[in-house]
C-alpha cells in the first residue's frame, strides 16, 4: 500500500522592513502631485497661480509702455500721411489709438479685479484677441497699395520695429505675441513675393526669419520669467515650511518647558508627601527590628520588620535619585565645592561596599597612586558617583568575580577614576540606552536585582557638571569598565614650603631714637595687686 504524498513544508520568509521615506522625498512627491494637478486644471500647462502672475506682468508691461506705443502709432500715421491722403492716415491713427486705449483699459481692469481661474482664462482670451486686432491694423497700413512708392528698405525697417516692440511687450503671453506679429510678417512676406524679383524674395525670407527670431526671443523671455516665478514660489514655500517648523518647534518647546515645570512641581510635592510617611515607616520599622520595647511574640515578625525597613531605605534612595536627576536636568543642581581627596573617597566607598561584595564572593582590588593632591570638587557628588559605579559593578558581576578600583593621573595632568569588573558586559548598541534616564539594558532586565536605571545617568551628569569626562567601555562575556576623568584645572597642586629667610608677616615699625628714650606711661589700671 503506497504512502500518501507528504505535503510540502511552507516556510514563510520574513518580510523585508519597509524604510520610511525621508522628509525630502515626501516633499518632492507632494510637489510632483501638486504640479500634475495644477497642469490638469491650467490652460497653458503651468500652475494657475503662474498663469495669473504672467497675465499680471503682461498688463503691467503694457501699461508702462503705453506712451511709447502711442508715440509709435502717431509717428507712423504722420509719416504715412506724406504718401497717402491725410484722412485715411488720420483714420488709421485714430483706430489704432482706440485699440490701444481699449487694451490699456482692459489691463487696468484686470489689475483691479481679484484673480480666479475662470477670470484668468477669460482675460487671457481677451488679451489675445486685442493683440490680434492690433496686428491686423498694422498689417493693413503696411500693405496698403498707396505705399508702393515707398522703398522696400523702409517698409522692412517699419515691420521689424513693429514686430520687435510687439514681441517685447507681449513676451509674458507668447500666444499674444504671435497674434500681434504673425499677420504683419506674413503679409509683408506675401507682399514681397508678389513682386516677383529676387531681392524681394530675399526680403520675404528675411521677414519670416525675423518673425521666427522674435517669437523665439519672446518664448525665451517667457521661460526666464516662468523660471523666476518658480524659484520665487519655491522660496516662498520654503519660507512657509521654515515658519511652520519654527512654530511647531516653539510650541513643542513651550510644551516641554511647561511639562518640565509641572514635573518639578510634582516631584517637589511628591517628595514631601512621600518623605513624611516614609520617615515614620523607617523609624517604627527600626524600632520593631531592634526590639527596643521587647522581643516579638512571633520571631518571624523581626524578619518582616527588617524587610519593611530595607524596602523603606530602598524607596528613600530611589526618591533621592529622582530628585537629584530632576535638579540636574533643570540646571538647578549646585555644587558644594571644596578640597577633597579622590583616593580617600574611593577607599571609603570601598569600605562601605566591601561587606556586600564579600557576601557574593567578589574580590575588590585597589590600585591607587600615592601622594596625589586634592581635587576641588563636590565631595557628596563624587561619593555618589563612586557608590553608583561600584554598586553596579557588584550587581552585575557573578559570584567569584573580581573588581578593580583605580585612581591616578591622566596624561594631561588631571586625575581619573576607573571601575572595572568581570561581569556579563553590555552590548555595544545598548550603551546609549543605559546612559539615558531610566534606561536599562537586556542584562539588567534579566537580572534579579533590577534598578531604576538612574545610577549611570546621574553619575554622568555629575561628572559633566565638574567639567570631566565619563567613558563606558564594555564587551559581552568579558566585563565593563567605566573611566571618569577630572580636568587639570580642578587639581590643587601642593604649596611649596616656606623658606627660612622669608619676610615677616607684618613689617617692623620704624622707631625713632628719641622715641626709644622717651619713657612709657603706665597703664591707668593694672591687673594684679602690685604697683
Automatic annotation (TrEMBL):
Q: Which SUPFAM superfamilies match?
A: ATPase domain of HSP90 chaperone/DNA topoisomerase II/histidine kinase (SSF55874), Homodimeric domain of signal transducing histidine kinase (SSF47384)
Q: In this entry, which stretches build a coiled coil?
A: none
Question: Residue ranges of region Disordered?
Answer: 1-45, 495-531
Please tell me which top-level EC class this enzyme sits in.
transferase
Which residue ranges run through the membrane?
A: 64-83, 89-107, 127-147, 153-170
Annotated Histidine kinase domain residues: 269-490
| Name assigned to this protein | histidine kinase
In its UniProt entry, the species of origin is given as Bradyrhizobium vignae
Q: Lineage in the entry? A: Bacteria, Pseudomonadati, Pseudomonadota, Alphaproteobacteria, Hyphomicrobiales
Amino acid at each position: 500500500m503506497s504512502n500518501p504524498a507528504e505535503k510540502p513544508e511552507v516556510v514563510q520568509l520574513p518580510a523585508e522592513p519597509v524604510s520610511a521615506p525621508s522628509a525630502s522625498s515626501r516633499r518632492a512627491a507632494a510637489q510632483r502631485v501638486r504640479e500634475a494637478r495644477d497642469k490638469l486644471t491650467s490652460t497653458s500647462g503651468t500652475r494657475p497661480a503662474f498663469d495669473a502672475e504672467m497675465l499680471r506682468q503682461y498688463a503691467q508691461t503694457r501699461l508702462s509702455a503705453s506712451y511709447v506705443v502711442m508715440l509709435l502709432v502717431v509717428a507712423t500715421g504722420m509719416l504715412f500721411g506724406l504718401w497717402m491722403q491725410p484722412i485715411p492716415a488720420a483714420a488709421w491713427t485714430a483706430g489704432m489709438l482706440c485699440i490701444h486705449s481699449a487694451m490699456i483699459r482692459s489691463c487696468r481692469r484686470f489689475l483691479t479685479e481679484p484673480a480666479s481661474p475662470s477670470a484668468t482664462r477669460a482675460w487671457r482670451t481677451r488679451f489675445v484677441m486685442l493683440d490680434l486686432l492690433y496686428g491686423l491694423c498694422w498689417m493693413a497700413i503696411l500693405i496698403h497699395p498707396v505705399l508702393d512708392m515707398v522703398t522696400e528698405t523702409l517698409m522692412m525697417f517699419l515691420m521689424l520695429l513693429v514686430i520687435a516692440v510687439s514681441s517685447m511687450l507681449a513676451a509674458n503671453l507668447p500666444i499674444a505675441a504671435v497674434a500681434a506679429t504673425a499677420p504683419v510678417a506674413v503679409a509683408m512676406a506675401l507682399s514681397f513675393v508678389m513682386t516677383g524679383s529676387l531681392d524681394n524674395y530675399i526680403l520675404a525670407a528675411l521677414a519670416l526669419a525675423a518673425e521666427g527670431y522674435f517669437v523665439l526671443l519672446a518664448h525665451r523671455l517667457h521661460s526666464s520669467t516662468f523660471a523666476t516665478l518658480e524659484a520665487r514660489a519655491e522660496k516662498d514655500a520654503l519660507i512657509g515650511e521654515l515658519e511652520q517648523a519654527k512654530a511647531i518647534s516653539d510650541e513643542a518647546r513651550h510644551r516641554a518647558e511647561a511639562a518640565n515645570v509641572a514635573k518639578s512641581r510634582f516631584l517637589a510635592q511628591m517628595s514631601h508627601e512621600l518623605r513624611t510617611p516614609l520617615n515614620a515607616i523607617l523609624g517604627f520599622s527600626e524600632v520593631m527590628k531592634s526590639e527596643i520595647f521587647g522581643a516579638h511574640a512571633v520571631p518571624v515578625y523581626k524578619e518582616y520588620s527588617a524587610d519593611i525597613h530595607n524596602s523603606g531605605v530602598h524607596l528613600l534612595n530611589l526618591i533621592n535619585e529622582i530628585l537629584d536627576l530632576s535638579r540636574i536636568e533643570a540646571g538647578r543642581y549646585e555644587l558644594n565645592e571644596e578640597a577633597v581627596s579622590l583616593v580617600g573617597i574611593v577607599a571609603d566607598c570601598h569600605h562601605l561596599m566591601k561587606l556586600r561584595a564579600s557576601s557574593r564572593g567578589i574580590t575588590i582590588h585597589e590600585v591607587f597612586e600615592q601622594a596625589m593632591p586634592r581635587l576641588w570638587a563636590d565631595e557628596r557628588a563624587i561619593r555618589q558617583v563612586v557608590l553608583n559605579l561600584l554598586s553596579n559593578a557588584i550587581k552585575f558581576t557573578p559570584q567569584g568575580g573580581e573588581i578593580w578600583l583605580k585612581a591616578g593621573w591622566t596624561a594631561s595632568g588631571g586625575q581619573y577614576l576607573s571601575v572595572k569588573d568581570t561581569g556579563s558586559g553590555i552590548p555595544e548598541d545598548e550603551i546609549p540606552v543605559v546612559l539615558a534616564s531610566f534606561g536599562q539594558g537586556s542584562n539588567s532586565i534579566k537580572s534579579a536585582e533590577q534598578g531604576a536605571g538612574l545610577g549611570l545617568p546621574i553619575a554622568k551628569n555629575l561628572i559633566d557638571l565638574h567639567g570631566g569626562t565619563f567613558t563606558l567601555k564594555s564587551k559581552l562575556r568579558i566585563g565593563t569598565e567605566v573611566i571618569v576623568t577630572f580636568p587639570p584645572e580642578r587639581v590643587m597642586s601642593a604649596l611649596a614650603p616656606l623658606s627660612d629667610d622669608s619676610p615677616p608677616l607684618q613689617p617692623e615699625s620704624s622707631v625713632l631714637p628719641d622715641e626709644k628714650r622717651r619713657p612709657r606711661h603706665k597703664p591707668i589700671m593694672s591687673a594684679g595687686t602690685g604697683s
